[in-house]
Amino acid sequence: MITLADREHMLTGVGARWDALRGRRIFLTGGTGFVGTWLIEAFAHANGALGLGARLVVLTRDPEHFAERVPHLAHDPAIDLHRGDIRSFGAPKGPFAFAIHAATEAPFVPTPAQPLGVVDADVAGTRRVLDFARDAGAERLLFTSSGAAYGPQPAALTHVPETYLGGPLTTDIAAAYGHGKRLSEFACTSYARLFGFEAVIARLFAFVGAYLPLDANFAVGNFIGDALAGRPIRIAGDGTPRRSYLYGADLAIWLWTMLLTAQGGRIYNVGSPYDVSIRELAEVVVEATGARGGIQVVGTPIPGAPPLRYVPDTSLAQRELGLRANVSLQDGIRRTFDWHRGG
Questions:
Q1: Domain count of the chain?
Q2: Does any domain span residue 37?
Q3: Is the pLDDT of residue 343 over 60?
Q4: Which of 81, 122, 130, 317 is 20 to 30 A from 284 (CA-CA)?
Q5: For every residue of the chain, which 3-state class applies, written as one string?
Q6: Does pTM top 0.85 for this prediction?
Q7: What is the CATH number of the domain that holds 263?
């Protein structure tokens, strides 16, 4: 369970907008992942604290595993676990006012057995959710896409805005994940216009917080894992790429706000505008956690080479929805470290 402070932060961060859920039903995919779990934590606390009388149906392939991992959420009487695969699930009965499609396939390069890589699975899952939203009479749908839809960020562009029209190269098969997200965004927009509901697209960047895996391909999670184990914080590259990290509680505030109030048919970046290099990130982890193992940088920077960037411009979300990164990177890392440590 996340801390009461984080739960209260999400409650007040969404504020009066929670009332739109009163007496309504919401369908959520991807509830067992980092993003989905934070969304459920926010819903459970707001629903109970405000007496909303809302119900959340969560699609999961393995309800038993979900119940083992987060029993306080699995046993919440307002939360129903619906067993099924994202591409073929049987629809839960009754109408739903809202749908959140947060399920995503792990990126992988195309293989002879799966020549389109992650594209097939991602788009098929989105199509199934959209068919469900249409048939269930959903009023609004939120799709959590990815900053990968922009393709490589130009070195001269410090923060990529929603107006940037670049994209992954169609000849780059390693960019299957970004291509899948772009196709899913198109599908969401098309269904919404044809079938009369509002679809909002959130392009997600990088995050930190409880439930973040410490052994996956996330630098901040790997660094926190090193700190917890007392190992040196190991930077596999040269430490120059620049990233930014939004805290999980802020992420939940942003996504619930977008579902409930953002303009339909729009794309919004979701992330922190405060970027650091990977080397600076490691230094923040040391400062926030008190790690004593030092920092090891495996790669060597190339003199004069511009840094690789993956940093969003979030001015649209701030201007239209009043959203901000409220929890600092150092505080977010400290909270994540304490959560994994059990403190």
A1: 1
A2: yes
A3: no
A4: 317
A5: CCCHHHHHHHHHHHHHHHHHHCCCEEEEECCCCHHHHHHHHHHHHHHHHHCCCCEEEEEECCHHHHHHHCHHHHCCCCEEEEECCCCCCCCCCCCCCEEEECCCCCCCCCCCCCCCCHHHHHHHHHHHHHHHHHHCCCCEEEEEEEHHHHCCCCCCCCCECCCCCCCCCCCCHHHHHHHHHHHHHHHHHHHHHHHCCEEEEEEECCEECCCCCCCCCCHHHHHHHHHHHCCCEEECCCCCCEEECEEHHHHHHHHHHHHHHCCCCCEEEECCCCEEEHHHHHHHHHHHHCCCCCEEECCCCCCCCCCCEECECCHHHHHHHCCCCCCCHHHHHHHHHHHHHCC
A6: yes
A7: 3.40.50.720
